[in-house]
Amino acid sequence: MLVIRGEPIGTEFDQFMYVSFLYFPTVGFFMGCSIVNAILVGFMGEMELLASCLGDVFETVQEQLTVQKAHDSTTAYWATLHDQLRECAKRHCEIFTMLPKLQRMASFVFLQHHIFSLGLVTAGCYVTLRGPTLRENVVLSEYPISVVLEYFIFCQLVERLQDMNRSIGNKLYETDWMLQLQYSRKFHREYRSEALTIGLLVMRSQQRIRFTCGSINAVSMEKFTEFINLSYTIVMFLLNIN
């Protein structure tokens, strides 16, 4: 409500427009942030499942050979291993196919969140430190704290997503794949194909997944630290000049 010196001003339509211009953009902004957070969590879940599958790929092959009663069949072993690695490689490819779309969407949201957070945190901290009463300080401090927490969650999710991507290659490399892939002239093509697939999965999982803030700066915990330092600098500057 628009209030000046304790008296409401304007018509009901003015009040409605005032609330609409404040409420709906804010709700839309936080909904966008929530959607990006949910998608990041979903990507981490997919990567965790893929890492688990690759870490147990040779155990899965042995279990399937046991079910098929084909332990002594080298042909069945290579065919089963090929199917398992192909399925994992397909899932890995699907993740990296969808990832650029998420990066483009998150880039705009991160930039918007950075600008919005910087203004709100700076203004909230300044008003809180200059506020005359404790009650107003407690109410106003809720907004900067919630925004900083959401900024921290953003950066933490991006860091965890990068770590989860690296864990895919680490899980696969930590298996005894060098012993499992026994070379023979008869299965030279199969050996070369599976070794190449494993090498590609390991190398691609070591590539850094980069999320940017409006294609300007990379989103990371270092970026969060810079944001806190910048907010503190601006607040101290405003307090010193007033």
UniProtKB/TrEMBL annotation:
Transmembrane spans: 20-43
Listed name of the protein: Odorant receptor
PROSITE patterns: PROKAR_LIPOPROTEIN
Top-rank taxon, per record: Eukaryota
Biological-process GO terms, alphabetical: signal transduction
Entry GO MF terms: odorant binding; olfactory receptor activity
Keyword match Transmembrane helix: yes
Keyword Transmembrane among UniProt keywords: yes
A Pfam family matched in the record: 7tm_6
Membrane association type: Multi-pass membrane protein
Subcellular location: Cell membrane
GO CC annotations on file: plasma membrane
UniProt entry keywords in alphabetical sequence: Cell membrane, Membrane, Olfaction, Receptor, Sensory transduction, Transducer, Transmembrane, Transmembrane helix
